[in-house]
Amino acid sequence: MPELRPFFHSAATSRFTGTVYRICPARYSENVVSMRGSLLHGARYFTVPPIGGFVEASIDLQLNHVLDLTDRKLLRQASIAWKQLTQTRFYATQEIGLRAWEGGIEALLVPSAADPAECNLAVFLDNQHPPWRVHLTRVAAQPDRTTLQ
Length: 149
What we know:
This protein is α+β, with helices and mostly antiparallel strands. The protein has five helices and five strands.
């Protein structure tokens, strides 16, 4: 992995305004925008369904410093391979996230590991720059699907 600090300190960012969706264990339904679960258990995947099922939330965001890592030209500038963003081992993505966070980036737009044609937004809540906005618009319980059929 190349040294990414200089890239994230100088990369051009853009604004993001829109609604995003988050699914998390029901036990976190009172705080669905918290980063606690990712910090405690790692990011990107759950290995087993949580007791109590999931909740789904829609969240309105207005961010000012978002870096689009779905832009292949930008990836080439950073010497990051597309495959590093979608592989099942998270070493590369966690290193990228750490360096982006250190560089003051508010969020990364990244390809989805489940479907690389789709995107995810990795938001660093403690890096928000004014004016920014996070507004929780809806939380809905999802059925507990712990049994396989």
